[in-house]
Design a protein that fits this description.
The protein is built from three helices and six strands, in the order H-E-E-E-E-E-E-H-H. The chain has 226 residues and is an alpha+beta fold. A six-stranded mixed β-sheet has the order 5-1-2-3-4-6. The two termini are 46 Å apart.
Length: 226
């Protein structure tokens, strides 16, 4: 096997390895971290487990099953729909005209220029028009985990859902601050009632990798002046 063939095989193997790394890479996220939390141990009297009673999972009889502690789960109904439209139009127009004539006066030199009419005009017109329409519709359901309880009782939640497909993986991520008063009896809340909400829908795979500009193209796009 020639040296050129060996180099070609090495390049092909390296390219395949890099392509595999790009395909299986997890997309970066901006949601609150960590995206899960283990429940904290809580103790209730009595302190010993019984045939039915379990100290770790026990709740007082007056409590419901709504999320309120670190490690509890809550269902988020993502119903985000935004629509924005902007139309602008600008017009500007200016015109200017000047007329001048040389009168006929007896005794002046340059008699040939007498009676000549001079005129000058200037016109400037500008028109601009722009229109922008944007719409977004995202509907899904994800169950997240309480990762922190604020002093006022609000819950910081965060979570991720991974869906493995033949072409790659899809990631649905959500985080935000939930007011316990907005949690329904079914232990769920709408995403429109979550403060500081961060919602992501990303994917990896060769289809998404093909839509990303290469590093060399990004380099020339950043430094070329035209």
């Amino acid at each position: 096997m020639g040296e050129a063939m060996k180099n070609l095989i090495c390049i092909a193997v390296l390219a395949g390895a890099l392509a595999g790394c790009v395909t299986t890479a997890v997309p970066p996220t901006a949601v609150h971290q960590p995206m899960t939390a283990r429940p904290e141990s809580r103790s209730y009297a009595p302190q010993t487990n019984g045939a039915i009673y379990n100290v770790a999972s026990a709740r007082p009889l007056f409590e419901d099953r709504r999320a309120r502690f670190i490690g509890d789960t809550i269902t988020i109904n993502i119903t985000e729909k935004t629509q924005a439209s902007k139309i602008s139009e600008n017009k500007a127009e200016r015109s200017h005209t000047v007329d001048a004539s040389v009168p006929s006066v007896v005794g002046l030199p340059f008699k040939g220029a007498q009676g000549t009419t001079l005129s000058a005009s200037d016109s400037n017109k500008f028109g601009g028009k722009g229109q922008n329409n944007s719409s977004n519709d995202f509907t899904s359901t994800i169950t997240v985990t309480v990762i922190e309880v604020y002093p006022n009782g609000n819950l910081l939640v965060s979570g991720e859902k991974q869906i493995g497909l033949k072409e790659g993986e899809e990631f649905i991520r959500f985080s935000g601050v939930v007011n316990p008063n907005n949690i329904t009896a079914a232990n769920s809340v709408s995403s429109t009632q979550v403060a500081d909400a961060r919602i992501e829908y990303k994917a990896n795979g060769f289809i998404d990798s093909a839509q990303v500009m290469g590093w060399l193209g990004r380099f020339f796009l950043s430094f070329m002046p035209f």
